[in-house]
Structures are given as structure tokens and as C-alpha cells.
Amino acid sequence: MAFDLLPGLCVAELVLFGLVLCRSEPFLAWARTSNDQVQLARVAVAGFACLCLCWQAFRYSAGALTHDESQSGITLALVAAALAWFFGPLLQVVEDAVAAKSLRTGQVQHGDQLSALRTERDSARADSDRQKEEIRKLELKISAILKQAEGQADEYMRLMNENKSLRNQLADFDLVLGDKRKKAA
Predict the structure, then answer these.
(1) For 88-95, what is the mean pLDDT?
(2) Cα–Cα distance between 44 and 12 in angstroms, integer?
């Protein structure tokens, strides 16, 4: 009769529990998209189990079943109802675990990207520091060259003035000696 379906129903529920616990992705994807159907099936199985429980209790009280038969039937009905009830929270826990795992995977990927960016930043800082040091050295060289050029320009001007002075003196000597040469000749 209908009660004979209860052991098969319990086995089917245990198989579903196994699929959920093994995190079978096709089944979990189906359960996600068909959440209303899953909830309806849970209620239907629990209702059927409760109906079987009531039927077993009624048959035992009517004397149609022995104590052992009634006890095994009632236990089976309670197990079926409990499995139907626990299926929903189990499904939610596994879904949360899968989501947490994907978040952790995303965090690891972002952590790797962050690490790569930090490494890139550190190398850019090192390049910047190296270039700043190079600029400082070049500025020192430029200031030394400017001082040297300034010194050379000052020396050139001194030599030009001295040359002019010597030319003037030579011209004066030529004037003075030129007059004496003319007189002596």
C-alpha cells in the first residue's frame, strides 16, 4: 500500500543527502534554480511521512498491527519526516560553504593581484630613488662645470685685460722709442 513507498522514499532522501554532501554541482545548480520545487517536495515528503505515521498509529490502536510492526513503521515515518525537514537546512549550509569557498578563492586571487601591485610599486619606488640619486649626481656635475666655466671666464677676462694692457704698453714704448729711433737715425 502507500506505506510501502516510505522505505523507498527514505532511500531517495538519503541519496539526495549524499548528493548535497558531495557537493554535486549539477544537483546544487538545479536546487538553486528550482528552490520552490525543492521546498514543495520537502513539504510533500514530510506530509506523506506524517500521514504514514498517523496511519501506523491508527492501525496499531485498532489492533491491525503488532507492537513490533507498528514500532518499525512509526520509526520509518519519523526518519522520513526528519530527513525531509533536515534537507533544507543542509542544502542551505552547503550552498553557504560553496559561496564561502568561491569568496575565499576570489580573495586569494585579489591577494595575489595586490601582492603583484605591491611588488610593482616597490620596484617603481626603487627606480624613482635611483633616478633621484642620478639627478642629484648630475646636478652636482653641472654645478661643478658651471663653477669651472665661471672661473675660466674670469681668467679669460683677466688675460684679455692683461693683453690689452701689454699692447698699450707696447704701443707706448713704440711711441717713445719710435721718437728716439727717428732722432738717432
Answers:
(1) 75
(2) 14
Torsions phi, psi of 151, nearest 5? Answer: -65, -40
Kindly state the cell numbers that stand for 28: 546544487
Inter-residue contact 14 to 63 (CB < 8 Å): no
The helix-helix angle for 35-62 and 5-21 (nearest 10°) equals 150
Identify the sign of the CA torsion 152, 157, 158, 164: positive
pLDDT digits (tens, 9 = 90+) for 36-72: 777 777 777 777 777 777 777 777 788 876 777 767 7
Cα separations in angstroms, 178 against 74, 163, 165, 173, 174? 151, 21, 19, 8, 5
Closest listed residue to residue 53, CA positions, set 70, 77, 82, 75: 77
Residue 112 C-alpha cell reads as: 595575489
